[in-house]
Design a protein that fits this description.
498 residues; Amino acid/polyamine transporter I
């Protein structure tokens, strides 16, 4: 299933588990333990309100991307939707912004790994100095190698990274549970900042711990039974991400003395700071560092290499990029040239200390891509009303309009104004690139509006396969709702027993 005689075509090998771990893993990274955790120092036990709002801000958008991914299960995600729902120039504009943002996030994650790896060594009592840039490049090479070998092995390792993260998290929770102080859980509205803009910025900080939910649709050409798998993955993943955020926020609150909570707002590593303040050292500290580095960080790095490579690949297929980027490895079925280039660019940015600039540009670039995705959703309903949509979002058009407005507001709140000139410069380059290099060359062919899933054997499951898909979905659904409810329940318990 999922094989193809065409040697230059991606193959469908990713299942529901891989889609969920790719989606959740792209979101649950070091940001949860840095920017996201610092919000506990700002709002205290009221942080759950910001987390709930951030969750609601991605619930509709994630479902919208689930509908888009099921209807157009091709490589390139938002690029594939924008070229049909809007036009090619907008699609190319989006693709470049997405690629730059993902490479920036990948580079930042690799540097964050180097930082937490240093904390891990300290926890083990090992004194070993190494340039963080070198360690970051070694990590980047590792993930380039994984993705060079193909999406099948990358998907299996993604499952391992995420399950390692969840296992490590449970062990750490159990170890520090006895250190929880319920006295730090103040009334739920007590920590809300007085100014609306201040509260909104905290919501944005937490929202970054949810951003990245669209990653899996960029690999739509490599997902088995995408008309079923993609919507299920995109509707369950937000529940998992919320639950994980809520759980770690609760434990961070619980182990930090009330008088010291404010110090977390400015801490580079809030969890490490909290554990030092609480006098928690030894094995729990090592377990946390291993969980963050080998679980959370690795699960984000993997999609950050795979995602941009697929955008480069599909642009090359459309003659919007040099054709060499559209080559598929004959054995591993990966866009190997694109993977190698993503890694090379990321390492160059790391070694030249340019990652902070690129990372600062991410807020604007990601928001641009999301907004283009929502506009594409509306555009497809207008341009291609007969397009087969195996999954439809309830009140999807209304959700897209509301999401456009909400994300425009988020863009203003989240943009790094020091990086805005670079964002504007990149946007100008995108426009010039289309006008000078693409306008007369791109492939005018688009996938047929009459695409019929029944003619694609790797898209329609047999009865046995459908039953297996439903069994997997039932397990993931139970798990997703359970972690969501458990995260909420802990905060309720905290407020009751404070």
């Amino acid at each position: 299933m999922g094989t193809d005689a065409n040697p230059n075509k991606l193959v469908r090998v990713l299942g529901l588990s891989e889609c969920i771990t790719i989606t959740a893993g792209a979101v649950i990274g070091v940001g949860l333990f840095t920017v996201g955790a610092s919000t506990v120092g700002i709002m205290g036990s009221s942080v759950i309100l910001a987390t709930l709002i951030a969750f609601l801000l991605i619930l509709w958008p994630a479902a919208i991307y689930g509908e888009l991914g099921a209807a157009l299960p091709y490589a390139g995600g938002t690029y594939a939707y924008a070229k049909r729902g809007i036009n090619y120039p907008t699609a190319i504009f989006c693709s470049w912004h997405y690629t730059v943002a993902q490479i920036g996030i990948g580079g930042a994650e690799s540097l964050a790994f180097a930082n937490y790896f240093g904390w891990l060594l300290k926890g083990l009592g090992i004194s070993w100095e190494i340039d963080s840039r070198v360690l970051a490049c070694i990590l980047m090479l590792f993930f380039v190698f994984i993705n060079y070998r193909g999406i099948k092995i990358a998907g299996k390792l993604q499952n391992f990274f995420m399950f390692f993260f969840w296992a490590g998290s449970l062990i750490w929770f159990a170890m520090v549970l006895r250190n929880i102080d319920f006295g730090v859980f103040l009334p739920i509205f007590s920590g809300i900042p007085g100014e609306v803009t201040a509260f909104a910025k905290v919501v944005v900080m937490v929202w970054w711990c949810f951003a990245g939910f669209e990653t899996a649709v960029g690999m739509g050409a490599e997902i088995k039974f995408p008309q079923i798998t993609i919507p299920r993955a995109l509707t369950l993943s937000p529940l998992i991400v919320f639950g994980v955020n809520a759980l770690f926020q609760w434990f961070l609150l619980g182990i930090t003395p009330l008088a010291e909570q404010a110090s977390l707002a400015a801490a580079e590593a809030p969890f490490a700071t909290a554990m030092q303040i609480a006098g928690i050292a030894g094995v729990p500290f090592v377990v946390l560092c291993l969980t963050i580095t080998l679980g959370g960080d690795f699960s984000t790095m993997n999609p950050c290499v795979a995602g941009p490579a697929r955008y480069m690949y599909v642009m090359a297929q459309d003659k919007c990029f040099p054709s060499v980027f559209g080559k598929i490895h004959p054995q591993y079925k990966s866009p190997y040239i694109s993977v190698l280039v993503v890694g090379a660019v990321a390492m160059l940015l790391i070694l030249t200390d340019s990652i902070p600039i690129i990372a600062a540009m991410c807020a604007f670039s990601q928001m641009v891509c999301y907004i283009i995705g929502f506009i594409s959703y509306l555009g497809l309903y207008k341009k291609e009303p007969e397009l087969k949509r195996p999954y439809q979002v309830p009140a999807g058009k209304l959700g897209a309009v509301i999401s456009i407005i909400a994300y425009l507001i988020l863009m203003v709140l989240a943009v790094d104004w020091s990086a805005l000139p670079y964002n504007i410069g990149l946007s100008v380059l995108c426009i010039l690139y289309y006008l000078l290099a693409v306008r007369q060359k791109h492939n005018a062919y688009q996938e047929s509006v009459e695409d019929d899933f029944s003619s694609m054997p790797d898209m329609i499951p047999t009865v046995e396969e459908k039953n297996e898909l439903d069994r997997q979905y039932k397990k993931w659904r139970i798990g997703s709702y359970s972690v969501f409810c458990f995260g909420m329940l802990l905060f309720v318990i905290g407020y009751i027993y404070r």
